[in-house]
């Protein structure tokens, strides 16, 4: 069974907007054993879109459209698909009423144009959207299907997972597909590939993909077999030797991000953590608190962007700042000690560095980062230089801090 | 004149590989005044690709293919395009010789399969590739063109800029293209559209696109005229009335994000700001410091995730926490006052709320957010409830805090 994906919207045909929905959808379809044979981005042109849908549906059993379901004139997906399938659009008062209730909950008046979203293609099943105003539609015809999904990834994802996947699973012949996500910190992508390629290159099944983003690397293994047990055995056969090679650089075997892994370690230890941030400006605290339930272990911290704040809020001695400069091993250490003293946390992490674009002088070029950790047994400082831009230096530094804590807990 | 872009390669239809060439090509084509009306990714299937090329060429004057020009069996672009245009493929010995020389230079033996790269579509102009082995092709037919470009971005970019752009510039009538980016805070997309659609709907030129992400809306206007002056005048004619309607919700006329706009206002005032964050956990500080040069006005702040930290670090009275709960107007205000007192900043912003997934009890359901601002003239608190998930509630709250500061500075 083949699938085609059509993203609708002129905004993805100019400027820098990319269609990321198709990546998610492709992954999910592949997991079902469905191959994506074509994906397209089509602007807000009804005739062209209707033609594309018509042709896609003639070739492929599954056609998924994303976007163009909003309330405005240039939201043309409903009309175009109706035209392609030669069906009418029917106004459904109950959809308009549900929309109005949603607006009322948010204490807002529903605009008249939103009623355009209450039109359903004749014979379609409604896919309710609890994350936005645009309902989706599922249109089946002689064992084939066209899906109309909203464009915002957050809405599309939930709708696809909860409402489309179960329906698709009934259409698609069963295969057992099992995946494994290994996550690795503190390695470059090319070094990692050189290390593990001799293992995974021997196998066509599972398919191994290495994805790198923001100094975090994921190794994605996908096995397809007749039974789940066979697929699991195959995954273990390939992942085992890779895990041995990766050692303690491997931090997750289930795809959990680093802040969740570290949070679980802290929770198990009944330990707490606080932060003191200079160049990351709050990003480290933001990462910790991105995990639901982080109040179990994350107390809080200090954003000390200026020298005065390092003195005032963390008690860093001014003469130390004068002697070593704000971006130094000594100051990172003093910041961590200050945060731990003032919050009473088990661990304190401190970050100081130069994110750029301007440098901190000769001793601290752009990309310099010091991360310190303090606990009852003392302090430890690590130092790196990242050759990258402001945003990525900050992200890398945050990742380095989380990984330092992970290793510290593991060793302690 | 319209263009279509077709990326060839099954690798972009599974796993995380994205077609980035089309972003580059779209930008370059837009600059010439050429609109990209469709872009597609098609797997290594000759019939399907030939069909897509045939149809694209029937609709659009410019068709650009990237990828599938390698030496192996699954490199099918040459054959598919020849089939679509009903032309023969011709073996050109001089291409094979140039390839052989290239291999010799690298002290490598040319494989026999590389000779497949020496086939040219009848009547095509050869586009030499000095960055790789795959030569490109330029096929013109009655004022229309199909381009075959190599897949690696580094090769495609150079070939397009040096060899295709000059040829295209001769085909495409000269136009001036000017763009304007308006950014708006604190409005839902549908409300905004209802407000400004009566203005922009009257114009086909400029083209107006509305993009919404994370409670931030961009209005993108692109005008095409014979001269730049005409395009600018047209933009002003359309943007003027929209700006009047948007009033103080419009925060940027040049595409700058909110943290940069707020930073510039603070810098002009020689004012400083500090933050006190509960549910956003550092995200507000992170946004402020995402702007280069933010040390001019951002002092730092407090991440007070627990009640104890609100008491310890910000001096919030414990009896107040007991009376009103951490997520309340009163506590937001006390946090802002505490941050301002302890940092000496001109403005202090405080955030407390319930990001979820667990609620803060009856008085504070998931999505509740209080943002307070304190300055010399007193305090102000705003309250909203966002119907969304943890990440987005945090992002929305951060945006609301930045916008509150922007308005406060504007009014003061």
What does this structure look like?
The structure is a homodimer of 412-residue chains. Chain A contains 13 helices and 17 strands. The model of chain A has no long low-confidence stretch (mean pLDDT 91). The radius of gyration of chain A is 26 Å and the shape is globular. Chain A folds into three domains: 2-171, MoaB/Mog-like domain (Molybdenum Cofactor Biosythetic Enzyme, Chain A), CATH 3.40.980; 176-252, Alpha-Beta Plaits, CATH 3.30.70.2860; 258-411, Maf protein, CATH 3.90.950. Chain A has a six-stranded mixed sheet, with helices on both faces. A five-stranded mixed sheet of chain A has the order 14-13-15-16-17, with helices on both faces. A four-stranded antiparallel sheet of chain A has the order 10-11-9-12. The N and C termini of chain A lie far apart (52 Å). Chain A is α/β, with parallel strands linked by helices and 412 residues long. In chain A, helix 1 (21-32) packs parallel to helix 5 (153-171) and helix 8 runs parallel beside helix 13. The first copy, chain A, has helices at residues 21-32, 46-59, 77-85, 93-105, 153-171, 189-200, 228-246, 258-269, 283-290, 307-314, 318-324, 329-343, 390-411; strands at 2-8, 35-42, 62-66, 89-91, 119-121, 125-127, 136-141, 144-149, 176-185, 207-213, 216-225, 250-252, 273-277, 298-304, 347-353, 368-375, 378-385. Chains A and B meet through helix 1, strand 2, helix 2, strand 10 and helix 9 of A and helix 1, strand 2, helix 2, helix 6 and strand 10 of B.
């Amino acid at each position: 069974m083949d699938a085609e994906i059509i993203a609708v919207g002129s905004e993805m045909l100019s400027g820098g907007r990319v269609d990321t929905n198709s990546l998610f959808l492709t992954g999910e379809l592949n997991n079902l054993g469905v191959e994506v044979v074509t994906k397209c981005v089509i602007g807000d042109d009804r005739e062209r879109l209707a033609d594309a849908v018509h042709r896609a549906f003639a070739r492929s059993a599954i056609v998924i459209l994303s976007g163009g379901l909003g309330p405005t004139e240039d939201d043309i997906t409903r009309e175009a698909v109706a035209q392609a399938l030669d069906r009418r659009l029917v106004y459904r008062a109950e959809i308009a009423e549900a929309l109005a209730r949603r607006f009322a909950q948010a204490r807002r008046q529903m605009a008249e144009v939103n009623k355009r979203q209450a039109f359903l293609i004749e014979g379609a099943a409604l896919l309710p959207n609890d994350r936005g105003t645009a309902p989706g539609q599922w249109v089946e015809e002689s064992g084939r299907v066209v899906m109309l999904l909203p464009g915002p990834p957050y809405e599309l994802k939930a709708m696809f997972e909860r409402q489309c996947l179960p329906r698709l699973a009934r259409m698609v012949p069963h295969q057992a597909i099992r995946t494994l996500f290994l996550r690795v910190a503190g390695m470059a992508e090319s070094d990692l590939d050189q290390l593990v390629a001799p293992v995974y290159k021997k196998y066509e099944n599972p398919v191994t993909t290495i994805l790198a983003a923001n100094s975090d690397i994921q190794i994605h293994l996908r096995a397809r077999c007749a039974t789940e047990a066979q697929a699991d055995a195959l995954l273990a056969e390939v992942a085992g030797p890779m895990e041995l090679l990766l050692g303690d650089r491997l931090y997750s075997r289930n795809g959990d991000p680093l802040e969740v892994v570290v949070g679980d370690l802290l929770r198990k230890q009944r330990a707490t953590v606080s932060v003191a941030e200079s160049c990351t400006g709050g990003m480290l605290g933001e990462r910790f608190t991105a995990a639901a339930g982080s109040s179990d272990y994350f107390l809080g911290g200090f954003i000390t962007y200026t020298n005065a704040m390092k003195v005032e809020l963390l008690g860093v001695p001014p003469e130390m700042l004068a002697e070593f400069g704000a971006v130094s091993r000594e100051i990172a250490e003093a910041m961590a000690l200050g945060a731990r003293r003032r919050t009473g946390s088990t661990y304190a992490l401190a970050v100081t560095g130069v994110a750029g674009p301007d440098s901190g002088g000769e001793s601290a070029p752009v990309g310099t980062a010091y991360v310190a950790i303090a606990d009852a047994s003392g302090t430890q400082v690590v130092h790196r230089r990242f050759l990258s831009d402001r945003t990525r230096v900050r992200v890398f530094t945050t990742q380095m801090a989380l990984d330092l804590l992970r290793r510290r807990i593991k060793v302690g």
